[in-house]
Design a protein that fits this description.
Layout (H helix, E strand, L loop, with lengths): L6 E6 L2 H9 L8 E4 L7 E4 L1 H4 L9 H7 L4 E4 L2 H15 L6 E5 L2 E5 L4 H4 L2 H16 L3 E6 L2 H8 L7 E3 L5 H5 L12 H9 L5 H6 L2 H8 L3 H8 L18 E12 L2 H21 L2 E12 L5 E12 L2 H12 L8 E13 L8 H20 L37
Parallel strand pairs: 2-4, 7-8
Antiparallel strand pairs: 1-6, 1-7, 2-3, 5-6, 9-12, 10-11, 10-12
Helix pairs in contact: 4-6, 11-12, 13-14
Length: about 400
């Protein structure tokens, strides 16, 4: 393990709920839960006052109110959260240029080269916590460790408003009894598989024979053993230095189950425009379109893809390709969720098409993108998507959102 690095992981506490409580002082100190605008939404996050009653992310509102009858439901405001997240990440860059946004409310900071300026990682952490509290009235928990894996683990150890330091010499002692599920990257499915191998703690994972793990999990077997030992050599990757993006996609749960082909096609167009807009913004085109459908029973789903002869990034071409996939399938149930993804990407400078009709379409798309970038998303859009028409999406901010780059998904 590289003990020379000093990494911070900053995790905002009950972020959406905290932002809402600060925006509306009448909610301060009360049990609240942030939900989407759909009538069948789930809890996206809850305040610590609500968590004391057992309210958890992913619960339906009626389940949450069964735990806490006094629960106040607040419809989430994505623009409020993304604005605050962006400003907070600007604070981080005052202490180091090496900032990697992990999600809307989490970031890693490599402060190794900043210690000579600020004195210590703890000093930097306290300065960050004070500035966030002063500017936004909300709190965060910070973990300090020699790598990203341990820093994230540390930030979870004292919540809310905590500060935890994991020193290199204490790693083995801390990890020995730690449940494997506490490690970032080990989800429920992986936990079940490891439990079947009688591996329950990080200590047991770190001592497990690498060959045994590799036989079970393939090439990630070595990585799993390293995680159990607290080893992580992954660098903090600032915006602009990421690996080339492999795909651009967007999916959303519908506000109601759809079985009307016209409504399904309209929502498919909406998703295609969101994908196309992001692809054009970052100068990528793709040849492969993937369509994903989940049915109303929640458990049944399918995904199909098609690879085209030419690279595309215009929204109507993405839509036509996705629609061609949809037309090959007879829908068995009403649709609950749709997803469109553009992959097999390459960066390319746009060339003026040979034919006049294609040139006009490209020029119109460029003009539409220019207006939307200046005045707001979908100010100019396809006629069937104009304001006043019902939007089918649930309008919950996607987990892929980042403050910068191609993962900065447009929010409503």
């Amino acid at each position: 393990m590289d003990a020379c690095r000093t990494i911070l992981h900053v995790d905002m506490n009950a972020f959406f709920a905290s932002v809402e409580q600060q925006a509306n002082p009448a909610l301060l100190g009360k049990p609240i839960a942030v939900v989407g605008s759909s009538h069948r939404t789930v809890i996206t996050t809850s305040s610590y006052e609500a968590r004391a009653f057992g309210v958890k992310t992913g619960m339906t509102p009626w389940e949450a109110r069964r735990c806490c009858p006094e629960l106040i439901l607040v419809i989430g405001d994505n623009r409020k959260y993304t604005y605050t997240s962006t400003r907070i990440n600007e604070i981080f860059r005052d202490y180091t240029p090496e900032v990697e946004a992990f999600s809307v409310d989490e970031s890693w900071l490599d402060v190794t080269h900043s210690l000579s300026i600020f004195g210590s990682a703890e000093t930097i952490a306290y300065l960050i916590k004070a500035r966030i509290r002063h500017q936004f009235g909300i709190t965060c928990s910070i973990g300090i460790a020699p790598n990203k894996l341990l820093a994230k683990l540390a930030s979870d150890m004292q919540k809310p408003d905590g500060l935890t330091v994991i020193e290199p010499e204490n790693v083995a002692r801390i990890l020995e009894p730690m449940p494997i599920k506490d490690l970032c990257g080990i989800g429920r499915k992986m936990e079940r598989h490891l439990n079947m191998m009688s591996i329950y703690t990080c200590g047991e994972l770190g001592r497990c024979d690498e060959a045994r793990l590799s036989r079970k999990f393939g090439i990630i077997g070595k990585r799993l053993k390293e995680m159990g030992q607290g080893i992580d050599n992954a660098p903090v990757v600032p915006f602009g230095e990421e690996d080339d993006v492999k795909s651009v996609g967007h999916s959303s749960t519908l506000e109601r189950d759809l079985d009307d082909p016209v409504e399904i096609r309209r929502f498919l167009l909406q998703l295609s425009e969101m994908v196309g807009s992001r692809a054009r913004r970052y100068g990528v085109s793709g040849k492969t379109i993937h369509l994903y459908v989940r049915y109303a029973d929640f458990f049944s789903s399918w995904g199909k893809q098609t690879t085209l002869r030419n690279y595309i990034n215009l929204s109507d071409e993405i839509y036509k390709a996705a629609l061609s996939i949809l037309n090959t399938v007879e829908l068995e149930q009403p649709v609950r969720l749709l997803g469109v993804c553009l992959s097999n990407l390459k960066h390319q400078a746009e060339q003026l098409p040979l034919f006049a009709d294609d040139r006009r379409k490209l020029e119109a798309t460029r003009a539409m993108d220019s207006v939307n970038q200046r005045f707001g998303d979908r100010v100019v859009t396809f006629g069937s998507l104009l304001p006043g028409k019902e939007k089918a999406g649930s309008h919950v901010i996607p987990p892929s959102w980042r403050p910068d780059g191609i993962k900065n998904v447009d929010v409503l």
